[in-house]
Design a protein that fits this description.
The chain is mainly alpha-helical and 127 residues long. It is built from six helices and three strands; from the N terminus they run H-H-E-H-H-E-E-H-H. A hairpin with a 2-residue loop joins strand 2 and strand 3. One of its GO terms (molecular function) is DNA binding.
């Protein structure tokens, strides 16, 4: 067996963490909604957009931020959230790498960034 074709344990653990995070439908909804916003949004806007309590939204946003899917920025007493553009490009590549062994690196701060090609593909609306 060729060892170069095996995904490293560190990368496999990172990807598994991503997919565990996305295994929750509420987090998928939050991430999809945030990806369609043209600016960072405060928690109150997310709560207004989705039928969830503020504490539920905050919990799920914290999980998404911990796995680098969203970026949280404090401004005064509010926290603004936006999708991490590196993860938009890395997520499809992670799935591709797991299934087909294509080259690509995840968006973890400890690993190198990907090009924006996958991000443009992911964010295009489909008919």
């Amino acid at each position: 067996m060729n060892a170069t074709r095996i995904l490293s344990r560190d990368v496999a653990e990172e990807y598994a963490d991503w997919f565990r995070t996305l295994a929750d439908p509420t987090r998928v909804q939050l991430l999809a909604w945030l990806a369609r916003q043209d600016r960072p949004v405060p928690v109150r806007d997310v709560v207004d957009a989705l039928p969830l309590s503020q504490s539920t939204v905050s919990h799920h946003l914290a999980v998404l931020a911990r796995t680098c899917f969203v970026v949280a920025t404090k401004e005064g007493t509010s926290t603004y959230y936006t999708v991490n553009p590196s993860c938009l490009s890395a997520l499809p590549t992670a799935a591709d790498q797991i299934m087909a062994g294509a080259s690509g690196i995840c968006c973890s701060p400890t690993l190198t960034d990907l090009s924006g090609t996958a991000a443009r593909t992911l964010t295009q609306e489909r008919p």
